[in-house]
Structure formats: C-alpha cells, structure tokens
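Worked problem 6 (solution included).
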Amino acid sequence: MAPPPGEYETGLFAHIDKLVITIICEDQIPELEIEVNDGQWMKLTNLSPSSFVFMVGDPLKAWSNRRLKSTNHKVMMSGDKDQFSIAAFIMPNEGTIIKTPKELIDEEHPQLFKDFDFMKFFFFAFSDPARRIDSGQLLSHPTSFQCPYGQVVKSQLQVIN
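Solution. The predicted structure is:
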C-alpha cells in the first residue's frame, strides 16, 4: 500500500542481492533507487513500460572477478498509488561452486574472491550472524559461522589478499 500523499517511506530496505541475477519489471511509478558511487541514492526514472532492470547479485560479482558490480538498492514509496513490481530471480543448482573463470584472471586482474559453494553462501547470507555484516561486505567478510540446517561456512567467502 502506498503511504499517504506527501509522505515517503521505505517499501523494501537497502540491500545487495544474494542470488546470481534479479530481473525487475517496474510499473510506471519510479520507486526503485540505486546507490551510486558517492553514496547518494538515485531514482530509476524515465523507464519505458517495456523496460527491465537487470541487477547483478554478489555471486555474479564474484564469478566475474568484480567486472560486474552488485548494486545496493531499495524501494521507496510515495504518492497516492500502489506500486507493483515483478521480479525473477536466478540461482544455480545445489552443489554449484562459484569460481572465477581462468579467462578472467591474469596479471592485471588477479583472482579477487576464493571459490565458494553457492548454497552455503546463500544460507549464510540469511542467517543471524550475517545480519551483523553490512550487505555490501558479505562476500569479503571472513566467516566461520554456523549456518541454518547445520551447515558451516568457513573462510571460503573472503577476498583473497
């Protein structure tokens, strides 16, 4: 439901997607905002009704060796109309290891992330310990937390240094 006229409120908190890809189809009310490099929020406006927004998730950022950027985004609601979005999420099969292809690693582009099991990362991303980590730092945070369903995520998610 839209907030009362003249009010502005969060519809979906700021976050970076933990799935590989999110594809969003917005209605004609611009409510999706992305965080730009200077920490400011920018509304995605002037999208045609047939536009789709392609959001890179953290696993694709790691797979691409940071050539693709996962973006912090949120939904802000205002006005007197309800806002509707349709999103499609893409995730790999259980047991998939996210690994940067050798073709994306060289002297100019050293491997930035250790290989990791997607499902362990995904379950950890929604665990209680992960809630204490900034969404944008989750991939690079050294972890050894107990995950839901008895899975343990070791330091496999940390940035290689």
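Discussion: The chain has a mean pLDDT of 74.
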